[in-house]
Amino acid sequence: MTVKDKIETVVLWLKESQFAIALTGAGISVESGIPAFRGAQGLWDKYDPSEYATIDAFMRAPYKVWGMLKELYEITLKAEPNPTHKALAELERLGKLKAVITQNVDSLHQKAGSKKVIEFHGTGETLTCILCGAKYRIEEINLEKVPPFCECGGILKPDVVFFGEPIPLHALREAFELSERCDLLLVVGTSAQVYPAADIPRVAKRSGAKVVEINLEPTPLTNTISDIFIEGKAGEILPLILKAYKTQCE
Ligand code: APR
Q1: Section 2-20 average pLDDT
Q2: Distance between alpha carbon 53 and the CA centroid of its chain, in Å?
Q3: Is 99 helix (H, G, I), strand (E, B) or coil?
Q4: Which tens digit of pLDDT belongs to each residue from 30-77?
Q5: Is the pTM above the cut of 0.85?
């Protein structure tokens, strides 16, 4: 099947769908200037995740981990939504997409206008004091001097899920409820290597959903779970899907 044929099929499935959702990963924010974790120029090639991305590493060496966090915040706070985020927000506005489950912590789905966003790996928008639990917004933090401290003297930690931390219970529950309920799942820009997020496509498939995967390269889902795999940039493919859908539905 050509990409055009695949897009036609996805549009047909979208039209037939009563409950479509999306699962997104770091790949959809690459076109907003935020590096992904794996693959070409992946963040984990620069920073060993065992030394920078586990909760133990954060507690053991907060000054070191905040060196990476500061670099990431400086990129993500300047980043703007790209055509993928905008196309998914428009599909929600058209009543087609019921929710986005994202592994990203950059808030770009919300900035693009998506309303129903499940942040499966938390968010960088808020931080929590590891001593007293006080909450701060990133806008309140001066990133010139890291790590940032709470008024009580404790170090602040972004509300993102580090390896070794549990997925926020409300996000876990809602994501899997949506996965069981959906009849169409768009999986966009994820290497599908991190669990339990990578179980979401399996749960959707087992519940009878069609799974459409959009990625630069195949993943462990491609020949096992995905019904359609469209190879390419999400920022090019999603707008084509949206355009074809709107043409056929207006
Ligand atoms: N369009 C589509 N896919 C893309 C694009 C693009 N423009 N650029 C990159 N990709 C794909 C890559 O081929 C890769 O499969 O996006 C995927 C990014 O994979 P990862 O970097 O592993 O990101 P993700 O799957 O979100 O990682 C999951 O791992 O480190 C943890 O908590 C972190 O949430 C993250 C989780």
Answers
A1: 97
A2: 16
A3: strand
A4: 999 999 999 888 999 999 999 999 999 999 999 999 999 999 999 999
A5: yes
End-to-end alpha-carbon separation of the chain, Å?
26
Residues belonging to the active site: 121
pLDDT at residue 246, as a whole number: 97
* Angle between helices 3-16 and 234-249 in degrees, nearest 10: 50
Q: Give me ligand 1 centre to Cα 30, in Å.
A: 8
Instruction: Supply the pLDDT for residue 41.
Output: 87
Cα(62) to centroid(ligand 1), Å: 25
| β partners of residue 31 | none
Residue 250: is its pLDDT beyond 90?
no
pLDDT computed for residue 39 by the predictor: 85
Nearest CA to ligand 1 atom 14: 191
Atom of ligand 1 nearest to the CA of 160: 32
DSSP 27: G
Structural domains in the chain plus CATH codes? 1-34+81-121+166-250 (3.40.50.1220), 35-78+123-160 (3.30.1600.10)
Q: What share of the chain is helix, strand, coil (3-state, %, to 5)?
A: 45, 20, 35
Beta partners for 102? 24, 119
Q: Cα–Cα distance between 21 and 184 in angstroms, integer?
A: 6
Residue 147: phi and psi, rounded to 5, are -75, 150
